[in-house]
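[Solved] Which block belongs to which protein?

Original post:
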Amino acid sequence: MRFRFPPGGQDRSRLTRMPRPGLVIAVLAFAGMGASFMQTILLPIQSELPVLLGVSRDVTAWVITVTLLVAAICTPISGRLGDMYGKKTVALALLGLLALGSVVAALAPSVVLLIVGRGLQGMGMGVVPLGISILRDVLHRDRLGSGIALVSATLGVGGALGLPISAYVTERYDWHVVFWVAAGIGLLALVLVAWVVPVSTLRTGGRLDVVGVIGLAIGLTGVLLAVSRGNDWGWGSPRTLGLLLGGAVVLLVWGWYELRIQEPLVDLRVTARGTVLFTNLASIAMGFALFASNVVFPQLLELPTAAGGLGLTLMQASLILMPSGLVMLAMSPVAGRLAHRFGAKPLLASGAAVIAVSYVIAVVVELDVWHVLVVNIVVGVGIGLGFAAMPALIMQVVPSHETGAANGLNTLMRSLGTTSAAAVVGGVLAAGGAQYQGVPVPSDDAFRTALLLGLLASVVCTVLALLIPRPKPHVDEHPSLPDGVL
C-alpha cells in the first residue's frame, strides 16, 4: 500500500489509501464478470424449468425475463446513486443484493420466490458502469484506458465464460447448486471490493429524483417487457402493443420532466451531446450484433444433425462458445493501448467492422463446428474493441461528477440491444418453419436470416461510430482521461 493523490488532484479527491492499480482493475473486473454471469446462469436448463418448477412455460419465462428487466432499470439509477453517495458504497450494496438474491433463489420453495431472487441478482449489473467510473476517479491516466477496456468487456465476458460453468454444474449436480455458486461469487466480489477498492470522495450530493426513478422504471418496464415477451404474446396482441406504446409515452413524459428539474436522474442535455448520443445509439446496435450470435450459435450447435444442426451436447457447445469470452479478456489491454494511440472513435468503428466481417463469413460459408468457433472468436475481438471504446468516448464529454449515471445509461443502451436481439432473432428462428420429429426447429433460411440481422446491426454500428463528432472537452473537467483517447 502507498499514499497518493488520485489523478485529478486534491480538488477532486482527498488523500486516498491506494493499493496497486492492477489489483483494483482485477477486482472490479471480477465483480463485473460475476454480475454479468447472472444473465446466463439458467440458460442451460431454461427448457426444463416448466417440469422442474411444475408451472407453465409462460410463468417460467419470468425467471429469465425479470433479471434482464431489473438489470436494465437499476443500472442507470445505481449510476446516479453512485455519483451522489459514493460509487464504492453503491457497488457494495449491489453486490450484497446479488448475493442475497442468489441465496433466495437457491432456497426458494416456489417459483414466486425464485423470481424475486432472480430480480435481486439482476441488480448486480450496475456494478459494471460503477466500476468504470471508479477507475476514472482513482487510476492514473496511463492505466485508465486498459482498465476501462477490461471492466467494460465483462458485460460480454461474464456470459461467455459463465455458460460452460453453469452447464457443468447443472449437468452434474442439483440445479439449485448453481445459485450457491453464484452466491459464492457475489460474496467474494463483495469482500474484495470492500478490501481493495479505495473510497473516492468525488460526490455530487443533492437529492434523488424519485419521480424520475419511478418514471424511468415504468417506461422501461413497458418497453422491455413488450420486446422480451413479444414472441410469446404475439407482436400484434393488445398486451404487447399496449405495453410498448404505453412505455414509450411514459418515457417521453419522463424526458420532458427531466429537462425541467434542477437535479435530474439523467442529465438529458449532456446525453444529447453528439458524442454521447451517437455512442449510445452505436451501443444499441453493437449489443444487438453481439446477442444475435449468442442466440444463433448455441441453437445451431445443439440442433441434431438430422435436423440440419451440428449435433453437439450443451457442454460441448458451451466449450466452443467460451473462447469468445477469453478473447474479449485478452483484447482489453490491446484495446486500451489502441485507444490511447489512435483514439476511441476509430476503435469503435474498427470493432464494429470486425464484427461485420465475421457475420459476412457466417452468411457465406456453410457453417461447421470449427467455422462457428472461428467466427465467434472474431466476434469476440470486435466486441472487445467496441466495448472498450464506448465508455472512453462518453467520459470525454461527461462531467466527472456524472460519470456513474452516464456509464449506467450506456450500459442500459447495450442491454436494449441485447434484449431486442433476443426477441427479434429468437422470433426469426422460432418462425423458421422446419420440423424434426414433430417439433418445430429453425430452418437453414431462418439461421441465415438471423445472421443477416446481425450483419445489418454491425454495419449500422460502424456507420454510427463514423458519425460520432469530435468533442471539445474542457481540460479541467476531464483531468484523468488519457491524452489522445479520441
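(Second protein starts here: sequence line, then its C-alpha cells.)
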Amino acid sequence: MRTFANLDEYAAAKGEHLGFGPWHEVTQQEINLFADATGDHQWIHVDLEKAAAGPFGAPVAHGYLTLSLIPLLVRDIYTVQGLSMGVNYGLNKVRFPTPVKVGSRIRAGAELTEITDMAQGKQAVVKVVVEIDGEPKPACVAETVVLLVP
C-alpha cells in the first residue's frame, strides 16, 4: 500500500505507476448478483451448461462487472490522507480486451496519468489495467476520473 500524506504529495506522483492490488477471484455468485442487479441475464454469464459449450468454454463476467470491481481492486494499491471525500467523476476510455471466466483471478495496476487543480480540490485521471492471472491480455483498461476533496 502506497500512502500519500496529502494531495500535493499525490500530485507529485503524476506519471508514476502506483502499484498492483491483490488478486481477487471472480465467482459465479458475483456474476449472478450482478446479473440480478442489472437485469442482464445473458446465457454467457448465468447458464452454466450452455456457457460451458459456448465460445469461452465457461461462464464469463459481465464487462461492466469487471469495471465495477475497480474500486475494490484499487483500494489496496494506494491511499491519499487528508481527504474529506473522493467523488467518481467519470471515465475517459474503457476497453474489455479479454473476457473474465468464472473462477479467474484478477488484479489491478494503477498509474496516475493526469492531475488538475479544481475549485474543490484536484481531479485525477488514473489509468487502471485489470489483469487476469495467466492471460496475456488484460480484462479491462480504463481511464478513471475522480475528484479528490481535502
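Accepted answer:
You had them paired correctly. Confirming on the second one: The helical segments are 7-11, 28-38, 43-46, 48-52, 63-68, 70-74.
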